[in-house]
């Protein structure tokens, strides 16, 4: 590992603490000049490092540069097998994750980007992804489950993101079926799941779950201005990413029951909505969410249960 990465890992583990050049040189077995060069390289990359005579170097609490070292420091133990890749810019993290799957036989990996040039949401819609103000990540899974069981991972991702936001930012978000997160009536997080399915067996071989969170984004395109919002809290994105990763893989690894929490967070239960299953439009009241995360809708024509579809208004 390059010296600058080793220093960053140490500073991320103990943010707010000063490390003298002499102490860093002794710890890593290098010269103080090598330490100085490594610290300056980190500064050039955008990390906010304070240098004070006789005290040394300190990584500022306000530093929000994405790095694998920062994510790992916040993750803690139990996730050493998760490959973490950081990109300044990608077309979309889901596309990058699928390319990674094609190149490497990975079971767990996460791609995180500072900016997406072509971030995607449901039905091919754009997910606005400016640099520096959002968290855009995609997690790789290999569930090897029947498709109807693997669909639950989408709901799990919504609960994981809601928990991570609450843990790091201190705000409680609500879920709009099936996996958008809302705060104050506006969307702050979108989730897009894409699966590679073996049609002969009906089993999902691999899955990419993309999660986009508006953290401090202020300005949105006109067509999104009255629908989208951000958390509005300057939470370090690497800590938020680590929380999302821990919650998501934690739910999956432990096969924990999260549907009761999903229902508690789902604000459309009991609400009248417009709905489309892709071929027909419906209007009715949401009676509940099934065990397989199906939408249960009461209409004038009777009760319908939808495993997929889109809420068109609410």
Can you describe this structure?
The model has no long low-confidence stretch (mean pLDDT 93). Helix 5 links the parallel strand 3 and strand 4. By secondary structure, this protein is α+β, with helices and mostly antiparallel strands. It has three domains: 57 residues, Orthogonal Bundle (Arc Repressor Mutant, subunit A), CATH 1.10.10.10; 198 residues, BirA Bifunctional Protein, domain 2 (2-Layer Sandwich), CATH 3.30.930; 42 residues, SH3 type barrels, CATH 2.30.30. Strands 3, 4, 5, 6, 7, 8, 9 and 10 form an eight-stranded mixed beta sheet that branches. A five-stranded antiparallel beta sheet has the order 14-13-12-11-15, with no helix packed on it. Helices cover 31% and strands 28% of the residues.
Task: Provide the descriptors you would attach to this structure in a database record.
314 residues; alpha+beta; BirA Bifunctional Protein, domain 2; eight-stranded mixed beta sheet; 15 strands; elongated
């Amino acid at each position: 590992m390059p010296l600058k990465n080793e220093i960053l890992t140490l500073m991320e583990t103990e943010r707010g603490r000063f490390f003298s050049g002499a102490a860093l040189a002794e710890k890593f077995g290098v010269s103080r000049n090598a330490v100085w060069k490594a610290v300056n390289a980190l500064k050039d990359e955008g990390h906010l490092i304070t240098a004070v005579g006789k005290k040394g170097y300190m990584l500022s609490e306000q530093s929000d540069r994405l790095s694998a070292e920062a994510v790992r420091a916040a993750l803690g133990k139990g996730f050493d097998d998760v490959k973490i890749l950081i990109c300044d810019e990608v077309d979309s993290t889901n596309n990058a994750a699928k390319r990674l799957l094609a190149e490497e036989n990975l079971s767990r990996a996460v791609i995180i980007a500072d900016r997406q040039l072509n971030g995607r949401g449901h039905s091919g819609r754009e997910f606005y992804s400016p640099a520096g103000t959002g968290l855009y990540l995609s997690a790789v899974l290999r569930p090897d489950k029947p498709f109807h069981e693997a669909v639950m991972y989408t709901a799990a991702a919504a609960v994981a993101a809601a928990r991570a936001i609450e843990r790091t930012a201190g705000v409680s978000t609500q879920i709009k079926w099936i996996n958008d997160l809302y705060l104050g009536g506006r969307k702050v997080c979108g989730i897009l799941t894409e699966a590679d399915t073996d049609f002969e067996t009906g089993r999902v071989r691999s899955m990419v779950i993309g999660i986009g969170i508006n953290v401090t984004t202020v300005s949105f395109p006109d067509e999104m201005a009255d629908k989208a919002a951000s958390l509005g809290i300057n939470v370090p994105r690497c800590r938020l990413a680590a929380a999302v990763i821990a919650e998501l893989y934690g739910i999956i690894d432990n096969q924990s029951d999260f549907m009761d929490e999903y229902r508690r967070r789902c604000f459309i239960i009991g609400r009248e909505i417009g709905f489309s299953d892709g071929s027909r439009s419906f209007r009715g009241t949401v009676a509940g969410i099934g065990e397989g995360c199906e939408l249960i809708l009461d209409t004038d024509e009777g009760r319908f249960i939808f495993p997929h579809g889109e809420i068109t208004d609410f």
